[in-house]
Specification:
Elements (H helix, E strand, L loop, with lengths): L4 E3 L7 E3 L21 H13 L1 H16 L6 H8 L3 H14 L3 E7 L2 E5 L26 H10 L8 H11 L2
Helix pairs in contact: 2-4, 3-4
Length: 173
């Protein structure tokens, strides 16, 4: 087992990450997290980084995935386990995945890919980390661009279709 793990006190077989000297686990830019590009999201990121919330979520994800062993954990299972919303859970797992602390399998449970420790991949196919690469999430597409794309695709721009298209863009990963 890796030098960064130790058995939990009083719980044989349960591994915990060894304490680190700094609260952050996985750097993302300079702070250990990210934001959606708007002021309120940036404020939330800075506040959560300063309070150690970002590092706590990453550490909690690593502990839960460690204890899940080869069964691993999906984003939804992590959300439910800690009462997080999707963005919080997904961010923590993505940062751990990007840094190589966890691996994401192509195998799915309830429609979601499974995260495991590298020691528990066991020859299963992996899904590599794919950064957005500076591209904006489709949800930030201006209404005018959405309407143009709908017209080009032959989808009538009306009071029913436009809200459905906006909702579709919101739900994209």
């Amino acid at each position: 087992m890796s030098e960064s793990w130790e058995e939990a006190a009083g719980e044989p077989g349960v591994l915990m990450p060894k304490p680190t000297p700094t609260p952050g686990m996985v750097p993302y830019g300079e702070t250990g997290s990210g934001h959606a590009g708007n002021a309120s999201s940036r404020d939330r990121q800075e506040r959560e980084d300063a309070l150690g919330t970002t590092a706590y979520r990453q550490r909690a994800a690593l502990i839960l995935i460690t204890n899940a062993k080869s069964e691993g954990m999906t984003v939804m299972e992590f959300e439910e386990g800690l009462g997080l919303h999707h963005g919080q859970a997904s961010s923590a797992l993505s940062h751990l995945h990007r840094a190589g602390h966890v691996r994401r399998l192509t195998h799915r449970r309830k429609g979601q890919e499974i995260y495991v420790l590298p020691d528990y991949v066991n020859g299963r196919d992996e899904s590599p980390y794919r950064p957005r690469g500076g591209r904006k999430h489709p949800r930030f597409t201006e209404d005018e661009e959405v309407r143009k794309a709908m017209t080009a695709a032959g989808i009538p721009d009306n009071s029913t279709n436009f809200p459905l298209m906006r909702r579709f863009l919101e739900l994209l990963p």
